[in-house]
Amino acid sequence: MTSERTETALSVVIPMYNEEEALPALVARLRPVLDGIGAPYEVLAVDDGSADKTAELLGDLRHVWPELRVVRLRRNSGHQAALTAGLHRAVGAYVASIDADLQDPPEKIPEMLALALERDLDIVYGVRNDRSTDSGFKRRTAGVYYWMMRRLAGKQMPAQAGDFRLLSREAVEAIKSLPDQQQVYRLLVPWLGFPSGEVHYQRDERVAGETKYPLSKMIRLAVDSVTGFSAAPLRLATWLGVTSFFACLGLLVFTVVAYVAGKTVPGWTSLFVGVLFIGAVQLICVGLLGEYIGRIYTAVQRRPTYFVGYDSADPAGPVGAADPVDELAVRLASPRAVGRRTPA
């Protein structure tokens, strides 16, 4: 594995889910760019349990594109899990990640690599300086997300930087060493603190197919980002409790004044509003606590976030130290384990 890493200058990780329509256009633009860098490379396409012909097309492309490597997950595990599978199996000295929809231009990858080599950087972010092709709703929600994340995670997180980036081998190994199960790389990579730079570009429209990040997944990403990188929501629950306490004191004073004035019946409205307010605050606090407890529960279970069913670089499925599924397979296949399963 060490010699393979030294020979491969660049790995390009591409998570894919139902991208059969976008795949031909992606290959037509990406392959000439990578062939032109003048160094050995691999393209690691991670099929995230696609239900269309994505896997079949990737299998056909391998016959005409020897640098293409296909990794198939056994089920749809999500974009970040597919990206994790690709990062953990990439062997290049530098690893770039890009989506298959061509909203991020592959032509920027050589520029990222040149910048990293010139300035000795471990991370190069692809930063969107023009999102005019996105809908107004998408631009506003993205703006709120990045503003909130920079407030929580710190200003080392570049604004408008998604999952289009270049990582050095040192940065990839640092990521692989982290125990996080629900990784959000938009926050995790800046948190590492490695020397970084930026390459700016205009975000294009999706080349084909439908978006794989509807509103529900965007909300889930925001929740994972907040609960995974900050305890601020728990402090928010505390402040909501303090606010509700003082609101109750105010209502208590109002009730006493109304009683002294002989106007206790009109106080029904304030009492009703007070009960609703306290109930809402309690539910919010319980919900926030539930999110964090859920993350603790997931961490304690230690279930892998993805299962690799096939890797074209090693169809037999050899053991990989960084792959929890392969580790489990080895333990089950060991003679001692077999002896335990054999009836006496």
Description:
It is a single chain. The protein is of the alpha/beta class and 344 residues long. The protein has 2 domains: 8-214, Alpha-Beta Complex (Spore Coat Polysaccharide Biosynthesis Protein SpsA, Chain A), CATH 3.90.550; 231-331. Helices cover 52% and strands 15% of the residues. It contains 13 helices and 8 strands. It has helices spanning 2-7, 23-35, 54-61, 79-89, 109-119, 136-153, 169-176, 185-192, 215-229, 232-260, 268-301, 324-333, 335-341; strands at 10-16, 41-47, 68-73, 94-97, 123-130, 161-168, 196-202, 308-311. The model is unreliable at 1-6 and 317-344 (pLDDT under 50). It is found in: Membrane. Belongs to the glycosyltransferase 2 family.
